[in-house]
Amino acid sequence: MINAEFCLFAQVTLDTNSVPFRGVLLEARTQSSTIPRGTFRTTNSLVQLLTCNVGGTSYPESAVSHSSETEKTQIVVNWIAPDVGNIEFRATFVQTRPMFWTGVTSPIIQRSGPTVVPQITTSSRSQFQFSSDACGSTKFCFINPAQCNPATDGNCFFMSSTPLNNQGLLFEMSGMASGYIAIGFSDDQTMGNDDVYICGMDVSRRIQVSRAYSTGRSRPVSRMLGQVSNITVANNNGVIQCSFVTRNNISTAQRAANNMHYLFFAFGPSSDGLINIHQRTPFISSEKVNVGAVQSISGSSGRPILIKAHGALMLIAWMTTGTIGMLIAQYFKCIGGERKILGKAWWFQLHFPLMTLTVALTIIGFVLVFVQVKGWSYSAGSHPVLGCVVMGLALIQPFVAIFRPSPDHKRRWIFKYFHAIVAYAIRPLAGTLLFNMQNINSHTSRTEMRIFKCYLHTLRFSVLSFFACFHHM
Predict the structure, then answer these.
(1) Three-state secondary-structure class, residue 372
(2) Residue 330's closest CA among 340, 338, 322?
(3) How many CA atoms lie within 13 A of 77 on its CB side?
(4) φ, ψ at 60 (rounded to 5°)
(5) 3-state secondary structure of 472
(6) Three-state secondary-structure class, residue 192
């Protein structure tokens, strides 16, 4: 099956409905013609571009073929439309040497008007410079660090938009990156359900401008570039820069269009023409802005204060008070003999307030994050789901403890094992959640996990040592 639409840029999908194939050849032609039309752009390393020769004339990048004989069930490529008649795509698939299909065609793709293919110009730094001098006077700017100037500072992350008298917006993007820079438009300060413009390297390491839709923690989904023209790109000593004019509506898809958005500026590596996870938290505007209005703002890569408070409270609850309370209940019931405090075993009088405090901190942290996000965070993956599980289990424990039978009751063992099983379930879940937060890259995660393990070992050793000394006293 071949799917495509006729526009400036089309995304062509070759899909065999889960039937694997090893080889493919794809061209675009007008009806009853052997001349290939348009040019293709690859999106990954599964395919390569070919130059076709027809009647002594070469048509570069006019066909797509496989780059290896690995099995695949789908291929996605971009196609730049020419200014010709209606188009159909033709493909040949090879599953094995004796089994192949030829003459596979798409439906005729109708033209709706003349096509103007955006020309991509590659420029050098001397020809192509952005400046923050006009920020706040003739154009909107989003800059980090504040007051930096991309004309003189390669470490300046810069985005600007200039209104063009109802003819769209002129965007400029600049930043130091190993693969891509991207600007996102969001309804909130959490990644997910956002329109994104990406200035990044393709499989040939050439800079391209593309448009995508971010769904959160996964790689953004490519979208039609649409009404984008006057593209100019540059890559000077690791500083990626793009300039283009867009007449697309800037809105978050699947929601009501408006002119106010939070801005995200992300950057990171890429491989095989696909962007990878950014290496640090994107710069995020502190409030919603209108990129068609003239002003200058700076972004912050720090998390909102309520998110920081959420993380701090959960860290205290499950890495300190909760851990100490569980250690006391697990290892120190036999220490101190019959010694009691206010009529209860001394270990219980320590265990009870520590675990009560743990539940209280968990409730507060749980509420704070919902206040910040203003609802459910659909783009946060499994984190909110597991968080609700931990919250539910944490609430069960005190209620079970309140209605526990007496120590000599015949059903006491039911409470004992249930209480212990729930505790053993919460502890690994809470630890996993603390190091499964959004926007933690693999290197940071490994480093923080080592710190976390050292912390737990130190805490366990300190608690055990303290009570060992207490027991000898």
Answers:
(1) helix
(2) 322
(3) 30
(4) -65, 145
(5) helix
(6) coil
